[in-house]
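Dissemination and training. As part of the outreach component of the grant, students in the summer workshop were shown how a complex can be specified as a set of sequence lines and then modelled as a single object. The example used during the hands-on session is reproduced here so that future cohorts can follow it. Participants entered these lines:
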Amino acid sequence: MSAPAEILAESTPEPDYLSVESGIWSWLNTRDHKRIGVMFLATVTAMFLIGGCFALAMRTELLTPNRTIMDAMTYDRMFTLHGVTMVWLFLVPSIPASFGNFLLPLQIGARDLAFPKLNLMSFYTFVLGAVITFGGMMVGGTDTGWTFYAPYADSTPTDVVPVVVGIFILGMSSIFSGINFIATTHLMRARGLRWGNMPLFVWTIYATSVIMVLATPVLGMALALVGLDHALRLGIFDPAVGGDPVLFQHIFWFYSHPAVYIMILPGMGVISEVVTTFAHRRLSSYVAVAVSTLGIAFVGFLTWGHHMFVSGMSTFDAGVFGVMSMFVAIFSAIKVFTWTGTLYRGQILVRTPLIYFFGFLFLFVFGGMTGVALATQSLDVHWTDTYFVVAHFHFVMVGGSVTAFLAAAHLWFPKMFGRVYNERMGMLTATAVFIGFVLTFFPQFLLGNMGMPRRYYSYPPRFQFLHVLSTGGAWLLGGAVLLAIGNLVVALRWGARASANPWHSRGFEWLTPSPPPKHNFPVTPQLDFSPYDYSMTEEEARARAGAR
Amino acid sequence: MNLGLGPSRQAAVNELFRRVLFLPPQSSTMASEIDHLHYFVIATTIAGASMVGLLALYWVLKYRVREGLAPRSDPAPTSPAWLELMLAGSLLGLFCLWWLIGYMQYVRLRVSPKNTLDVYVTGKQWMWKFAYPDGQSSVASLYVPTGRPIRVLLTSRDVIHSFFVPDFRIKQDALPGRYTTAWFEVPEPGTHQVLCAEFCGTGHSVMRGQVVALDPSDYARWLAAGNSDRVVGSLGEDPRAPLGQVGGPSLAGPTNVEGASEEDFPPAQLVNLVRVGTQAAAQQGCLRCHTLDGTPHIGPTWAGLYLGRVPLTTGEVVTADEAYLTESMMDPLAKVHAGYAPVMPSYHGLLSPGETAAIVELIKDLRDVPGRTEPPAERTAEGPPPAAGAIGRAPQERPALPLRQAPGQGPMPPAVEQGLPPPGLQPNPPPVGTIEIAGPNGTRRTVPSAIPVQESKP
Amino acid sequence: MHAPELGEQFSDLEHQAAALRFGMWVFVVSEILLFAALFTLYAAYRTMFPSDFRAGVLHNTFAYGTANLFVLLTSGLTAALAVFGARTDRRVFTGVMLSTTAGLGLAFLAIKLTEYGKHIEEGSLPGPWYHYSELPTFGGNRFFTMYWGMTGFHALHLTAGVLVMGWMAVRAFQGRYTARYHVKLEMGSLYWALIDLMWIFLWPILYLS
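and obtained this result:
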């Protein structure tokens, strides 16, 4: 099977994965990680838009201090719908299940993930979980918020059981994907690909998968017990029969704090790829990013208590959780230094993903630093459960993860679909997303400072001015996101054909044609070099990968 | 944050920062200190984010290429390890400094000073209730004297609530089935909004209240009068009461509520908490085993118990503070007084939070009653005779384990059912402001909002 | 040339077996974390109600728990022997061992159900149904709620394990597991070992002290 190096990208005897088979069934029953990745991408994008609609409804309600368009119960359901949808149906699976699925095998030179059937099962498990979760919330009208705090979740007159069942199933989907990604990273790497040369996106997907596999079951158990509490009155977390509601918080945050890193780590991987691709140089420190990725995955398990500083925990515990939170922040800071340093003496091509990179850098630094501020206990006492916290995690989750998701969509769009989008429109929408975002969430920091608690349907009128600003920003942000996604959807059909490597990246995924053939690489590549080595030309890199 | 400025300049800088950051007035003794850390942290955050952003922007403009990427002749420079480590290390140092200051402040926020005035606070869907050791109780409005540390002992009757006073920079969850504490000291008279910060159901956002800080002489008058209205009325005219502060909550006193009549604000009930405690202790059967005068009996006497050293069966020694006393009622077998048989049943769910508070208050009242004696030694050896009887009797006396209660429909504490005014719990709170909510099946109902307060526009 | 059971993403059967084995280990770790949540709850409540938990443990019938321990440990041995049988290409031996494992699993469930019957009789039931008269405390309620939760969850896993074992026994008799390729049998056996292990931890905290 010795083939000349040129065939790797130039002449493609094999049809690409999109056209190799056609018909709806060929998609629904596919084992191809690329097709499953695309299906996940479509699903999570739909979830993102639905969750965004809930957010806009909420923001509109908050235009006035009292009733604007809905009553209190509907509002409570709305923020529960928004939280559950965005956390479990969008943020957790967003980058790993879509781009991770698509790119992980390509970036390590494999023909597919280790367990393609499990991968498809993960997709259908996700769909099932999504249907149950949504159906449960729509029919049962759950109003607990996405945190399901006991004993409120035990005693709410609304229905909690279907939602927690749905989330339990979504958790299984996460675990399946996690197992698949871990096994693939360990055992499916192409010849010559050392851990020290693995693309950073692979590193972050790997670390994310470790967190998924270790933390998700604990969440599953916590939610299963809350469901049992609600359905059977077991009272596991109900103080009326001797249960301890604070224990639920501990177990919940044991998952849900690491889950924050499930959401942000893949975004960090994307950003690492974007900055090297568009600065056209290697990272200023590969080791720093790889090591800090693992550091986050590890230390992230030891900080959950910082969500509970006012729950009555002992001051000693609070101190330990506080100082651990400071350590986990340092790993993110190291990454930020590295990305910024990578711009130094680069050959920088300003394209849409790089605009998103800027947005990410600024918002993530601000969001991250306010996170450190929140871990400073005496300040947290004032801020916790106020809009300051809301603003903080939206800076990290929307300013970080969603921005990275959009960056990934633009960076890999030509790879996935073989077309290019309208660059001018892309840059414009990226800028609008940034402005809309800042306008939405910056006022919320000030609201938190003023003492506006979260999950408030009606509020004292002194908060109104900032709420109106925030709502205006939210509509701008919503419009900008729609335009950005619309720009890509239009390009799916009408975009110009892309070359195999339009960004002149050295990433391994660009060694194959775009879109890739069904089995990714016509010849199993040999990847014994760095994916960030821009001192080689593209041709040299291809020749080296295809050489025996 | 001492910038080497004079006190007036420093106050001006403080005020500038406070307004720029939209912080509410600093109305407790801890507030301004916490705010100074706030300014430090936020200023650093903004500076850090801007520096990173600007540096990135500068490099992009400097190294930007239009088209035609040339292969590099050199592998691009990497940042040396010492630089990364130095940056990370100095940042960690900065973060740890924040943590250190913040942690010290946090410990001071959490550990209340001595000689506090204690107020028992009960959260309930959706109102705050306050019970004073002196016997007063009130709904939604907490009256405190200025210049004296106030400790609130928080609990909840249903789900988790959180007692949040933005002007004081304090917040503490109120948990069902246990007590948590927070404290504050208000230097100046004034009115400060209380908000619930933990989502607790449909009425969460209207579960508001207020802390009314009174000059000590006014507070004494309020106590003596036993009628909150009169004092509040005078507060409205009191020029010292800084109502309507800029940027902060501008609360008017309850008398200013539009449409609120005299009947809406019945005088706070004059109930002596110690007396209520005695009643509750008798009704609940506490006095069958515990004595109030130091006589030895099945259980430890309450005379002189408060803040005494209690030897446990495990060999440890604990102080009989509020936490221990409350725990001993809720979970008696967790820490058993050495020399006594572990026969006491749990009163969890049987005693209302108000009754628990009242009994604790009773025990505190008996602090100086002499005659607390160690239990007879022979009892330790053979166990008290009534033990077997007690253990057999307890299950019959107790109702079945209380099952979960639907919100807002919890059984009234026994005292209420018997027509006695429970401490701190008014059976029918005044239905001032209302909020319309949708029931689970599309029904609609009107529920009272807890706060009898109207606000002026900012 | 691809063997029929070889996925096209793998270069050879050894590679595939290694990946499957590795994936199963990751799954086992994930399962352990699932139980860990329950063990944490148990530990937390035991700290809150030490004497009631102690009384609950002493009340539990030591004989049932210990009998089940021996049943499960024996089944662990037979599950391991099944792998040994597959490695040495003994079709019938493998099938018999797998059937024995499934049978011992059923025996475990039978003993467990007898014990549950006793609990139902005396009223040591979870949550709101708890009316056990000798331990009428919140702690007693907590202990038996945890007891039912943990053993019930373990029993669910065990039932799944019995089904897997039965299915694998049929496949073994059909000669699907060869010395060259029997990684799925190893995976099933590993899962059974997990169930074993969980009981080894449950037994002391629910029956010993």
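The radius of gyration of chain B is 28 Å. Students were then asked to discuss how this feature might be tested experimentally.
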